[in-house]
Write the structure tokens for this entry.
Amino acid sequence: MDISDKELYSELRRRVMERNELRAAGSGDDDRLCAIIDEVICEYARTAHLTLMQRIRARKQVYASIRGFGVIQELLEDRDITEIMINGPENIFYEKDGRISRFGGEFEDIGQLNDITQKIAAGANRVINEASPIADSRLPDGSRVNLVIPPVALNGPIVTIRKFPQEIMTIEHLIELGSLDAEAADFLKKAIAARMNIVISGGTGTGKTTFLNALSGCIPADERVITIEDSAELQLNGIANLVTLEARSSNADGKNEVSIRDLIKTSLRMRPDRIVVGEVRDGACIDMLQALNTGHSGMSTGHANSTADMLSRMETMCLLGADIPIMAVRRQIASAIDIMIHLGRFRDKTRKVAEITEVAGFEHDEIVLNTLYRFEETGEKEGRVEGRLVPTGNPLARPGKFRAAGL
């Protein structure tokens, strides 16, 4: 947006905000707001020539600044954009098709970006200020948002938005995208039916939450499912008996926090058939493992470079949450987790399942892994990595749950 456009946008917005009818219309009367914006644009055009495109763009921008999210509204509406990164009012980037590009627009000033930041935080009952300059929030559509403001952020408010997929991801869709093989998908469906405990690992942006959503679509409709997350973003469909729990940060006095650990503990008293933890990243890991070791089934995700690294991370997280011997932690993990799925992001920016591994037990003070499927690259065509998930031929070392489910 050049300077003349910024001045036009700023002036029109000022005139709209000064209209008494806007205050009378209330925050929910969008039709009246649009009518006021149109009137202001027509009045302004009597003394200044505006092209049709300028009028249309100004109308969208003024509306977005009042009801939406300002200059980034068009990025939010673009279904192909997966991530939006705001580094201060003048530097906006977005990810599309796995590649990061710079956006031509910018916020009017740092005050407008501050308003958007506060609006996003308040929408999820989060507080962000100089005393608490970091917050995780979400947009109304479920998109995940991380907020960091000064004095921690030196170049102005930093907003990172992981957009929520518009369409519900399913196992079948993952197969169409080439992220998963049909044979491996059939195995995972059976693993869920057998109520195996599953952990999905991967790096940032590999699609762990999306994959967890797709797997959750295979959960039998008659189960009682409880989801536990820092910021609610899971979309489980087809399950009538569904409970969604979200952690709460402490207030300005450092009180009233409700942690993931608190939610896991209370979920055990809710008669769950399956517990789905959005992501395990701290001492709550020990509580999750204890839940899975007491007859409950569950799924979760975590950041790691491989399935073996995910086990090491879980050990570390458990030690942060409880002062217990490392051997006891490993036994807990080996007993609780049945299947681990590792997701990778390849050089062509595609996301695929890289490995499916069974936690086969505990021997010689080490957790034993049994790799069932592994992605094998066969080449590259038109810049796309080709290959498939190849079964290793290893049978399940612990087929008890499959047998109990009649599979």
